[in-house]
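In the lab's daily routine, each protein ends up as an entry in a very long ledger. A line of letters takes care of the sequence, but it says nothing directly about the fold. The three-dimensional part falls to structure tokens, numbers that each stand for a local backbone shape. The outcome of that step, for a single protein, is printed below.
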Amino acid sequence: MKNNLSNIISFNSGSNDETLLSWSSFHKNNIELRSLFFNLDCALKYIHDHGYSVADFSPSEICILNGDEKYIRFKKIIKMSEDSRQRESAIKADIFHSAFLQIAMYCNMLNCLTPQFLKEKFEEIVLFLPQEDVNYYRGVIERNASVYLHEYCQEYFRRNMASFIENSDDANEINEVLQRNLYNNTLVYKEFNIYQNAAFVHFLIVPTIVFGFLFLFSIVCWIISVFSF
């Protein structure tokens, strides 16, 4: 855990939700995994954009809502610090943990892979990864790059312009998926609005109460001054 347990926001699971751990028992195909990880990092960026980070990357603490891989929910999140350096560090750590989890699932090593072993044996482990994503994982694991998988995929198409033009349907599909993910994550993490609205209401109530008290106090003082003469 990254912080005090009292600071962690937990989301409850629905009866039809499936943990990533359970899902991984039946889905070993790299195409399915890659599609899920694309959605996973879209959800991660959405969380970061709203000022939160992930408190637990355990596969049992990540849910696929209603069995639909487009709807990913991290069950435990935590508010990030207002300090820019700490926020940057938290985001970078989340991206690393996400990449680590993805590699562990590609290799079917959820229970035994460690960051140290991954760094030492990365050149052997890349054999299990999609060839087009090897440079992405290398950058995150070896150089601590702070890049989301879906952003890397977009850049991959831009840099391979010839392929991009010939396979424009692929590029359009990625853009459509990104738009759907933004909408999906708005639904999955709609509680963000509740927390933010509650904080805003609290921000308004406190000064309102203080102002009201001061106003009432001034009226009382005025009345006392009037009747004292």
Observations:
- The first strand starts at residue 8 and ends at 10.
- Residues 5-189 form a domain with the Transferase(Phosphotransferase); domain 1 fold (CATH 1.10.510).
- The chain is about 60% helix and 10% strand.
